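hey team, just a heads up i'm posting the complex here instead of the shared drive bc the drive is being weird again. everything in one block, sequence lines first with there labels, then the predicted structure for the whole assembly after. its two chains so it's a bit long, scroll down
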Amino acid sequence: MSISRDTIKALLLETLEEIGEDFQIEGLDAVDESTRLFGARSPLDSMGLVNVIAEIEDKLSELHGVEITLADEKAMSSTHSPFRSVGSCIDYIERLVAEESA
Amino acid sequence: MNKVALITGTRKGIGRQIAEHLLATGWTVAGCSRKANDLSHDNYRHYKIDISDESAVTTMVRAIKKEHGTIDALINNAGIASMNHLLLTPGKTVKAILDTNVAGAFYCLRECAKIMSRKRRGRIINFSSIATSLNLEGEAIYAASKAAIESLTRTAALELASSGITVNAIAPTPIETDLIKTVPKDALQKLINRQAIPRIGTMQDVINCIDFFLQEESNFITGQTLRLGGVTEN
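-- predicted structure starts here --
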């Protein structure tokens, strides 16, 4: 199973919008690939990011039958976190999905 | 709509009784064990998994979420024990006990908490044992695994409080289950004599604690280990 980068991007943006609405977090309805997902400049706090990660895992499983775990030791590291930005997060998901499918 | 609980270790013993109790009080229950379960009820679904298998736990929890939309409560009951002097306890036994009692319980907690966090509500009940507080001889690794569970309970309570999830633990006294059938009678009596209320526990004693932690009014109680029989921490 491979999923295109565009599909992953759409999935992530949709999830961010949903989490923004559900948890009343401003700034998640108009994001682009440079938007920070982690750190002081991110609209998300740490629990918000955890919820985004969990929701993405769930959607990948439910919609695409892909079982991956996105969280790892680097998830909350400001310099190495794959969740630094929307763009790096898409790249990270794309890599994990490819590894899972290999 | 029924509330949904995941109970681990439902094939027999405490887990089975809790499953039957919650089903009788209107819950939908998902249960798991390493072997098949003969528990049959319209609102019960069994998953044959080993909770020390991380990906099996993830798949099960996602399947429960897919079927029921949510998980309101996790009863983290599954556990194994091995009565032996520590000098005679092989590494294989140590790993098996820690894999199931600590890592397995953690996987279930983590996966359920992801779903509960999204709903901003949930109850997690772990199982410790008075073997930990009483430093039960012959159960060194089992007692250590339950000490880890009490610690996990306290930390998880802090990390998950902002998500509306409470995390507590029950530390039962010996109860008539398979877990204690290999414990010699005199050793069992010696243990019971160290309780403030020196009698063997009953399933009802445990179910009473479960009901207490699950009830709506208990939303201000988290990070606690409820020790039965009057056993205290020190």
